[in-house]
Every structure is written in C-alpha cells, then in structure tokens.
Amino acid sequence: MLIEKYKFINPRLNQKNPVFKSIIFLIILISLILAFLLDLALGSVDIPVNEVVKVLLGQEPEKVTWTYIILKFRLPKALTATLAGAALGVSGLQMQTLFKNPLAGPFVLGISSGASLGVALVVLTASATTPTLLADLGYFGDFGLVIAASLGAASVLGMMLVVSRRVQDTMTLLILGLLFGYATSAIVSILLQFSSKERIQSYIMWTFGSFAGVTWRQLVVLIPVILLSLLGAVLQSKSLNALLLGESYARSLGLTVQKTRFSIITSASILAGAITAFCGPIAFLGVAIPHLCRSLFNTSDHRILIPSVTMMGAILALFADLFSQLAVSQMVLPLNAVTALIGTPVVTWVILRRNSQKSFPS
C-alpha cells in the first residue's frame, strides 16, 4: 500500500518488469560468487578456481600448500571484504534516506572519522605493551573496538542529524560533515602525539584501509555483528520507504518517527563502526553503491535496494581488494586509494546529474 501511494509522488519508485528484475538479481548473485572465488584464486600465488572449490568443499587439492594459503590467509580476507562492502553500502543507503541527501555516506559525513576516533581512544590510550594495533586484545577487546567505533560513529551521526533539522541546504550539510570529520581527526592527531612510535605506525597503516588484517578470531566477532545489523536494516525497509514520503506523511501512516530515526542511527553506526574498527576508514563505497543500485533497478524501494546494495557492495569490495593486490607487482596498494578511484566518478556523476536536473527541470 505504501509503495503504491509513493508511485504517484515519486515516479522513480516505479519498478522494472519483475522477470527482468529477477534476472538482474541472478546476474548480481553470480557475479558475487565469481568475485569471491577470484579473490581466493588470485594473488602472489595463483591457484586454479577448480582447486579453490575443492578446498572449500573439504577435498584435497593438487598442492597441500594451497589449502593453507586459502584457509589461513585468503578466505578470512575475502569474507571480510564481503562483509565490509555489504555493511558500508547499506549504511550509506540508510544515511541517504535519513538525511534525504544523495551524497550522504559514512566517509563523506564524517561518520568514519567518528568511528576512527573511537578506535583511537581505545588503542592509542591503551597499555603500550601490545606492539600491534589489534593483537592480543582477545574477544572482549574485539567487542570493545566495535563498541567504541560504533559509539564514535553514532556521536557524529547524531550531531549531523541535529544539524540537518536546521540546515536544509545539501552542500552546507556536506561542508559541516567535513568539518566534523576534521575536528575528530584533530583529536586523533593530539592522541598520536602522546603515543608510542609503534602504535603510531600501526595506526597510520590502519588508516590506509585493508581487509587482510582481520583474523578468524576477529571474524567470530565481526560476522554476527554485521549479519544482525543487516537483518535489522532489512526489517527497517518499510520505515525507510515511509521516510521518503516525509515525516508528516510517515506519522500519518502510524510510524513513530523518533523511534525509527534512533533505530536507523543505531544500525548505520554499528555497520560503519564495526567495519571501520577492523578494516580502517574505507572511503566512498557507502556513497557510490546505493546510487549504482538505484540506477540499475530504477527504484527507490528499500525492499529491493537493501538486498541489491548488500550484494553489489560485496562485489565492489572484492574487486577493490583484488585490484589493490594485482595492480602493481610485489606491492599492495592502499585500499582507500582504490575505493576512491571507484567512488569518485560515481559521486561526480551524482553532482553533475543534480545540477543538470536543476538547470533543465522536467
């Protein structure tokens, strides 16, 4: 009923033929499986895809070392990339709907900076006996990082939400988001001045972004946190659709706006904060992926967008991980540099499209 009403207000919610839509979903799913297998197969040691499948099925490959390489190093990295792309994409979609801002995202609005501050407060002020960023913290330490990063993200997101009620201009809101990001970065810089050289070096490497540093022990924490948050986002689909109509209309549909807003902030903060805690502040994926899916399906219905953004985000994250490893021999590129190359054209296209629509109204 809600979607049918919204079609008269926003034609963009009109959906393509259900069969065609199903074919697109199938293509995306197949692409996700292929990207996952390629991320396991390619690297400093290339492993045939059929041998990768054997290892995943518990069979013996041609070389015993391939089992060790895949299970010890590549599978945790591929799972992390899949979770990160899905989480950042859905988090960006939630923020764009909440703020009614097409350029909102964890990195652009300073949410990732807030999560980084939460991590920095835990790591840089901890005992100097641990030389690496996340080593030897144990499960409680891993959950502590997730909580700290999520609280940092929620703090910035909450401030942005308060500001967005008073500031309607999109560009002003983005500028304020950048300012919040600079402010949190300034606090981190002060903390760095009082930290040991080892922790400073580890923290700087962490800010480049990487899927490779997450261990199986940390995945035991990360997987349930992300999956539960994604499930929460799926359950918010109708509420997110209602917010597209405006808060007054959403209230008339029986939606408790304050509770819904708090729920969205919590979900988006955990998704962005948990990934930032373990993988670093990864830029642009949260902004770019929702727009790709809206264009692909020609819809604003979150019942379609959330699953498609989840899969498309995972695909782009896996390919970004592959490109960072294979673009230059004997060297791994910073993940943030690769995601910026992916996200910048999409963000530029969104800005130019909005300006074009303003200049030539239909």
Keywords:
disordered N terminus, 362 residues, mainly alpha, single chain
Architecture overview:
It is a single chain. With 362 residues, this protein is mainly alpha-helical. It has 15 helices and no strands. The chain has helices spanning 2-9, 18-41, 49-56, 64-99, 111-123, 138-166, 170-193, 197-207, 216-235, 237-244, 247-252, 257-279, 285-297, 302-326, 335-359. The longest helix is centred in the first third of the chain and has 36 residues, at 64-99. The model is unreliable at 1-15 and 127-135 (pLDDT under 50).
Topology:
Elements: H1 2-9, H2 18-41, H3 49-56, H4 64-99, H5 111-123, H6 138-166, H7 170-193, H8 197-207, H9 216-235, H10 237-244, H11 247-252, H12 257-279, H13 285-297, H14 302-326, H15 335-359
Helix pairs in contact: 2-4, 2-14, 3-4, 4-9, 4-12, 4-13, 4-14, 5-6, 5-7, 5-12, 6-7, 6-9, 6-12, 9-12, 13-14, 13-15, 14-15
The coarse overall form would be globular
Mean pLDDT: 81
Q: Largest beta sheet, briefly?
A: none
Could you spell the SSE succession in H and E letters? Answer: HHHHHHHHHHHHHHH
Distance between the termini: 27 Å
Give Rg in angstroms.
Answer: 21 Å
Percent range for β-strand residues: under 5%
Number of extended strands: 0
Q: What's the helix count?
A: 15
Q: State the low-pLDDT regions, or none.
A: 1-15, 127-135
Instruction: Specify the helix fraction band.
Output: over 70%
Structural class: mainly alpha
